[in-house]
Amino acid sequence: MLAVGVMIWLGSEFMFFSSLFAAFFTIRAHAAVWPPAGVKLDFNQALIFSFVLLVSSPTMQIAVWAQEKGNRKKARAWLVASLILGAAFLGNQAYEWKTLPFRPKTNVYGSLFYIMSGLHGLHVLLGLVAMIALIGRMSGPKGDPGETAVFQAVSYYWHFVDIVWIGLFSALFLFS
After folding, report:
1. Cα separation of 95 and 89, whole Å?
2. pLDDT tens digits for 57-105?
3. Is residue 86 packed enough to be buried (19+ CB in 10 Å), middle (13-18) or exposed (0-12)?
4. Residues contacting 62, CB < 8 A, separation 6+
5. Can you tell me the distance from the alpha carbon of 6 to that of 14, in angstroms, rounded to the nearest whole number?
6. How many CB atoms sit inside 10 A of residue 168's CB?
7. How distant, in Å, are the alpha carbons of 112, 140, 161 from that of 157?
8. Contact 135, 79 (CB under 8 A)
């Protein structure tokens, strides 16, 4: 039942991010110059940290498989690895925001960039909080009957966050 609820919720999140993509591509299609002057993004740094975030999906999946097999120690270790990778991505985003030469009020691209990457960053943060809660839940020597379902639900959410980033990276860094 939890998996079905998470899938329905992720469907609504998909529609939410789809509306952001629709706004981005509609505005981009009508802009005479895109991106506007003054927009300078560090593509290489973004690519490196995109890879960091995307690597956290396999580590999360390995954690799920270990938990399903009852190997709680291995599951915790892989979950912590996913947490560290996600935190590194989020730390880079904070650094990026601090050092970018444009702000949300600079131009429409700035508004879209900060809204889209910021909402994704918020989702990453929520995923990290869920992982921390899951690590706390796993602190005992034995799991409870609902632990596997919760573990899987957190992994669905995390994979969703990674998939959304592929689209955002493509829109903000490749198609701009």
Report:
1. 10
2. 999 999 999 999 999 999 999 999 999 999 999 999 999 999 999 999 9
3. buried
4. 78
5. 12
6. 20
7. 23, 24, 6
8. yes
